[in-house]
Every structure is written in structure tokens, then in C-alpha cells.
Write a structure and sequence with these properties.
- Keywords: Glycosidase, Hydrolase.
- Its EC number is 3.2.2.20.
- There is one protein chain.
- It is built from nine helices and two strands, in the order αααααααβααβ.
- It has helices at about 10-20, 25-40, 45-60, 65, 70-80, 90-110, 110-115, 140-150, 160-165; strands at about 125, 170.
- Strands 1-2 form a two-stranded parallel ribbon.
- Helix 2 packs across helix 3.
């Protein structure tokens, strides 16, 4: 099958083929990826994918109702876990982002409803010929980032938000030649 040319190993080929760019409306998955994209900041996505299952276990299955109660003792415990991304500020952001996520859910009824409004409830399908033409940010990602930061979220800059929007299918950036588009 013809796919985008950026997947370079079995793990990111599977991610590309089964997840990347597919519209997601499930709050549980949306929260997990919001955390994963923040964890990726400054690192390669391969590192995140390799540690995803370990982080899922260590971060209580990305359950915001549990993460909202994380304290400094939990952060210290996670800092000793070699299977997670051990960045203190990112680990401290687990609680902050869980609190903010739950606030958005309460206000909108779901995080999905809030999130999809940034693309008028329809995925943006870009026409991209080559990987080097993939955008790293958009006006929608900048608007989302600004809104999330105003609500108190951490590790949600415009580039992270754009990657998040790609991952969750708000933006479809598969190459035109990709059969997964």
C-alpha cells in the first residue's frame, strides 16, 4: 500500500495506518493524545510511541479523574520510572491539564465538542504533495493554543496543537498519494 513517506519503522507505520489523521471524538482518546503530544515537546514522536504503553500504565490509563489528584509525591514516583518521559514540568502538567480538561468537559458537555469547534466540526483536508511541505502550524492551531493556554493548560503551544490536530484527525495531512488519506 502507498503511504506517506515519513513512517520509518513498524511502530510509526502502524500509528500512521491506524490512527494518524483519523477523526477522533472520544474524550478519553482526546485526553490521552493531549498528554502524549505535550510529552513529545522537544523529543521525537518515536520516543513517545515506544513509551506509550508504559505511560498509559504509569499515568493511570490517562484517566483525568485520577490525574487531577496527582501531587508532588506522585511526580517524584514518576521521576524514578525509566519507562516514562521524566521531565518534571511535563509530569506536573498531568494534574494541571486533567483539571483543565475536566473544566472544559463540564462547560461544553464534552471536550470533543469544544475541540471540534476550532475546525467548524469538519476535518481540514490539506492537499500535500511532499513531506517537506507539511505545515507545522496553522491559524486554527494558534487559536486552539491560545484558548487552551487561557484555560490554564500546559504544553499546548501552536506547534504542539497542530500535531495534536493532525493526530486526532481535525486536520488530514496525509500526502495526496497516500492510500490512507
Amino acid at each position: 500500500m502507498k503511504r506517506c513517506d515519513w513512517p520509518s519503522n513498524e511502530l510509526n507505520i502502524e500509528y500512521h495506518d491506524k490512527e494518524w489523521g483519523k477523526p477522533v471524538y472520544d474524550d478519553k482518546i482526546l485526553f490521552e493524545f493531549l498528554i502524549l503530544e505535550g510529552m513529545q515537546a522537544g523529543l521525537s514522536w518515536d520516543i513517545v510511541l515506544k513509551r506509550r504503553e508504559t505511560m498509559r500504565k504509569a499515568f493511570d490509563n490517562f484517566d483525568p479523574m485520577i490525574l487531577k489528584d496527582y501531587d508532588e509525591d506522585k511526580v517524584e514516583q514518576l521521576m524514578k520510572n525509566e519507562g516514562v518521559i521524566r521531565h518534571r514540568l511535563k509530569l506536573q502538567a498531568l494534574k494541571i491539564n486533567a483539571d483543565c480538561f475536566l473544566d472544559v468537559q463540564k462547560e461544553y458537555g464534552s471536550f470533543s465538542k469544544y475541540l471540534w469547534e476550532f475546525v467548524d466540526n469538519n476535518p481540514i483536508v490539506n492537499s500535500i504533495e511532499k513531506t517537506e511541505d507539511l505545515p507545522v502550524v496553522s491559524k486554527e492551531a494558534e487559536t486552539l493554543s491560545k484558548s487552551l493556554r487561557k484555560r490554564g493548560f500546559k504544553f499546548v503551544g501552536p506547534t504542539i496543537c497542530y500535531a495534536y490536530m493532525q493526530a486526532m484527525g481535525l486536520v488530514n495531512d496525509h500526502l495526496n498519494s497516500c492510500e490512507f488519506k
